[in-house]
Amino acid sequence: MRFDEATATTPVEGSIGLTKANLRDGWSINGNANGGYLIAVAARAMVNHVGRPDPVTITAHFLAPGSPGPVTIQTRTVKEGRRFATATASMTNADGRQLLQVLGAFTDLTKASGPELVDAMPPDLPPVEDCDSLVDRQDFSPELFRQIEVRLHPEDSQFAVKPSGVARSRGWFRLPNDEPMDTLALVMATDALPPTVFNANLPLRWVPTVELTAHLRARPAPGWLRCEFRTRFVTGGFLEEDGLVWDSTDQLVAQSRQLALVPVG
C-alpha cells in the first residue's frame, strides 16, 4: 500500500478538527504500529486542519501501542500566524484509548530561505545495491519493511547475530515504486531504521519510544535518503537516539531525537 493511502485521513462532517483514519496492516513491528507511521498519520490530519503543507517541527508523546484499526484524531489550532500555524492533535483508538499526543508547527518549506552553516556531512554509505535489505531475513524481518525500502550499511546490519559494538544505525530509505517523498514521509524516515542499541552489545530487546521530535528542514529531492542514527547515553532505564537525514542532493532535510525505554531481557 502506498504511504499516502496508508496515512489518509477523512474529516468528520459537522465537527471542528475531528478526523477519522485507519491504521493499516503491515505498517507495524510485532503487531504494533511503527511510531514514525503513527506520527505521520496524525501530521496528515494536522496539515489538512491548519492548511499549511509542511511540519517544520513536530513532537509526539506515545501513550499506548497502536494496533491496526480505526482511530480518531482531534486537532486544535493553538496559534495562526503569517508564517507558521501551531496545532495539537490527540489520536484515540476505537476503544477510547489515547495513543498519541502531538504538538507541531507548520509552514510552507518551499518559501524558506536564509543564510546557511552546515557543520556535518552525510554518512558514507556503500552503493544501495551493496547494502542489506531487511526483508525475508530469518533473524529480523518485521512487516514494516515490506512497506518501505530500507538498505542498511553492512557494518550495522548484522545486529541479531554479531553486533558491531557501536550504537549506530546507517542506511538508505525511500518509498517503494517511486512514490514521491514529502515532509510527512520524512517524519516516517526518522523512525524507520532498527534501533541503534541493537548494535551496542547490551542485553536489550525492543526499545519502546516515549517521545520523538523531528525537525524538518526542507522538502527532499527525488531519490534515496541517507540516514544516520546514533546513541551516546544509555542510563537510568532510558536512551536517546539522534538522527540526521540527507536527500539525494546531499541537503540536510531532517533531524530527530527520541527518548526510549530500555527494557532488559
Structure description:
This protein folds into 2 domains: 3-109, Beta Barrel (Porin); 128-261, Acyl-CoA thioesterase, double hotdog domain (Porin, Beta Barrel). It is 10% helix and 38% strand. β7 (85-93) and β8 (98-107) form a beta hairpin. The strands form 2 sheets. Strands 1, 2, 5, 6, 7, 8, 9, 10, 11, 12, 13, 14, 15 and 16 form a 14-stranded antiparallel β-sheet that branches. The protein is mainly beta. It has helices at residues 3-6, 35-50, 183-189; strands spanning 9-11, 18-23, 28-29, 32-33, 54-62, 69-80, 85-93, 98-107, 132-133, 149-152, 168-174, 209-216, 225-230, 234-235, 238-246, 252-261.
Summarize the structure.
With 265 residues, this protein is mainly beta. It is 10% helix and 38% strand. The chain has helices at residues 3-6, 35-50, 183-189; strands at 9-11, 18-23, 28-29, 32-33, 54-62, 69-80, 85-93, 98-107, 132-133, 149-152, 168-174, 209-216, 225-230, 234-235, 238-246, 252-261.
Defining traits:
265 residues; mainly beta; Porin; 2 domains; 14-stranded antiparallel beta sheet; two-stranded antiparallel sheet; 3 helices; 38% strand
Write the SSE topology.
Elements: H1 3-6, E1 9-11, E2 18-23, E3 28-29, E4 32-33, H2 35-50, E5 54-62, E6 69-80, E7 85-93, E8 98-107, E9 132-133, E10 149-152, E11 168-174, H3 183-189, E12 209-216, E13 225-230, E14 234-235, E15 238-246, E16 252-261
Helix pairs in contact: 2-3
